Each structure stands twice: as C-alpha cells, then as structure tokens.
Amino acid sequence: MERSCRALIAERIRQEGPITAAAFMELALYAPEAGYYARAARRSGRAGDFFTSVDVGPLFGTLLASRLAELWAELGPGGRGPDCIDLVEAGAGDGRLSLDVLDAAAQRHPDFYRAISLHLVERSDAARAAHPAAFKAHRAHLTSSAAALPPSFDGVLFANELLDAFPVHVVQMTRGGLAEIYVDADGETLVERPGPPSTPALAAYLADAGVTLQPGWRAEVNLQAVAWIGEAARKLRRGFLLLIDYGYEAAELYSGMHARGTLASFHHHLLDPPAAADPLATAWLADPGCRDLTSHVDLTSVRRAAERAGLEAVSVTDQTRFLLDVLERATLMAELADEGRAAERLALKTLVMPGGLGSTHKVMLLAKR
C-alpha cells in the first residue's frame, strides 16, 4: 500500500513537476485505496498512531451529549427543543464518538434523543462501510452517512480533531520574501524544494491574520479549513457549530515559539519532527500513506472566516474548562464519586488534565441564530 501511495505521488510529480505540501498531503492522507485515512476505518487508539479524547472511553461522548442537549433546548421555544434536530458529525471516522453520544442521549436525555436525525460525514469508504452495523441499535436515528456535508441542515454540527487533518501549504520567509515549500523527487527520495508561492492567497491569509514572519521562519497555511468553515456556515440554516481541535491564536502560532512550523507525522504514537538540516531526511515526507500528518490549527483565522460567513463566535475555551462546565450543570459529578466509577474518574482526569488533552485542545462554539 505504501508503494502504491508513493507511486501516485511520484506520478503526479512526473506529470506536473514539484507539487505543494497541500497536494502531497491530500494524496498521502486521502488518496482512494492508498491514502492513510482511506485504507482503514480507524487510526486512533492504543493500536493506532495517535490518541484522541474518544479513545479515553465513552465519558467524552457522555459529556458532549449533555452539551448538545443544552444546545438543542436553546433552539426551541421556552427551553424545549424542536421535535427534530439535525446532528451532524464531520470527520466521523468509524462513528465511535456519535455512537457514544447517542448511547448517552438515549439514557440521559430521552427527549433530545427522540429528536435526533444523525448525519455522519466521512471521506473514507472503509469508515463509512462500518456505520450501518455500528449504529444498529440507533438505526432509526441514522439519517445519512456520506463523504460530504448535507446540502442544508438545522441543528448542530460537531467535529473532533477535523481541521488539524486538512492538507496545508508550507511557507517559509526568506530575505527575498515569502517562499513556498514544494515536494519533489530526487531519484527514489521525496525532497523539499523552495519556490514562489503557488497562490497569492497565502500571503493574503498571513496579512489578514496580522502575521509577520521573520526570515528563516516556516509556517503552515490551512486554506482548506477557512473554505470548509465557509461551506459549513452556508449549509447551516440555524443552529451551532461545535469544533474541538488543537491549535493557537495566530499571534502565538506564527511566532518565534513555532519558527519551524508545526507540521509533523505520527506513527505508532511517536512524533517525527521535521529534520533539522538535511531535506533528504525530512520526516513528514517519509512513508506516504503509512503515517498521520497533522498541523496545529490557526484559531484566529477560523473564527474570522466563520464570522465573515455569518456565524457568531459564542465562545473559545480549552477542553478542560468546557468539560468541567458541563459537569457542573449535569448530575455526573455526584455519580462519578461512586466507588464503582474509578475508571471513569481516571478517564475524566485524562480528558481535563493540564498539559494533556485538556489544555492542548480548544473548543470553539459558533452560532447562527
């Protein structure tokens, strides 16, 4: 499979010349039958390459279900939610998070559960193929499973670690101005090649974010995240977007603290940072189709794109504060004190612990009233 993905990339380079990092990532992650996400329904967990909040256990989905039930109630008169709500999970993978949400909603929020019309959005054919069997117990609520967002929806779209997996352009500031990093072939090895920006949108993006890169600094520009937010905003008639991802405000992301950028690959839970000198050893180009590729999200640009598309930025907070706020309003805190709930207390600690998932992950709530 790895050779197949490498062959696709090599063929694209032979046909077009050096390709952008975004084009490389699109193939390495999503090429049909060869890309990293296309070849398996599930990539996270102890047996995978990275760890997410969903892998901690069902508690994350239980807490999320409580917050989603609150948002559902806000959409109806007098605090009583509508009879039907579109619940859309973007980047659903094999559906584990939505399954945890529906399991919890059925048990703890029956009125909300009865109103749910679930839409799973996932590009991977392998992952979508797992949805019907996984949601057998909730078959009446699974309305669609598709590669693209529904044409329109009323309710809540939520996504956990979606934007960080979008292909990004890699740029570097030189003394002569902004350059872009391309992927080229040197014999059998994929290498970096600097060149002029592939689109003026890269410089415009940085200028809009108020970013000034110093000579030698590298950075990622996630044009796809901005475009996706605009699309989601257009398709949402009324309701909320709840996005959970790791990232920083632009002033911090594009600072000397991240002067080498944040693009990296993960394999068996080991982070491969960019090589310090030799481009022939650049880790993010190794083994395309076999490693996860990810970069931190520019929260500032995502929020601005949402506001320009007609959404209101309700809040941006870290995962710790978000989950603890939910706990305070729900009855779960008292329940977790029970002697038999030690595993769930440990899961909660993992989800909210500073320095871990709790502080690295941010939660952005956007609304269209």
Question: According to CATH, what is the class of the largest domain?
Answer: Alpha Beta
Name the overall outline. Answer: globular
Regions with pLDDT < 50 over 5+ consecutive residues? 273-281
Structural class: alpha/beta
Strand content: 25-35%
> What is the number of E strands?
16
- Quaternary state reads single chain
CATH topology of the largest domain, which one?
A: Rossmann fold
Jot down its keywords.
369 residues, alpha/beta, Rossmann fold, 2 domains, 8-stranded mixed sheet, 5-stranded antiparallel sheet, 15 helices, 16 strands, 25% strand, globular
Provide a descriptive summary of the structure in words.
With 369 residues, this protein is α/β, with parallel strands linked by helices. The chain folds into two domains: 2-41 and 166-222 and 249-294, Rossmann fold (3-Layer(aba) Sandwich), CATH 3.40.50.12710; 53-165 and 229-246 and 299-368, 3-Layer(aba) Sandwich (Rossmann fold). The protein is 37% helix and 25% strand. It is built from 15 helices and 16 strands. It has helices spanning 2-16, 21-30, 59-74, 96-108, 110-115, 125-129, 131-134, 201-208, 223-235, 250-253, 299-308, 319-329, 332-336, 342-352, 357-360; strands at residues 19-20, 85-90, 116-121, 142-146, 153-160, 169-174, 177-186, 189-195, 218-221, 236-248, 264-267, 270-272, 292-294, 297-298, 312-318, 361-368. The strands form three sheets. Strands 2, 3, 4, 5, 10, 14, 15 and 16 form an eight-stranded mixed β-sheet that branches. Strands 1, 6, 7, 8 and 9 form a five-stranded antiparallel β-sheet that branches. Strands 12-11-13 form a three-stranded antiparallel β-sheet. Helix 9 (223-235) packs parallel to helix 11. The longest helix is centred in the N-terminal third of the chain and has 16 residues, at 59-74. Residues 273-281 have low confidence and may be disordered.
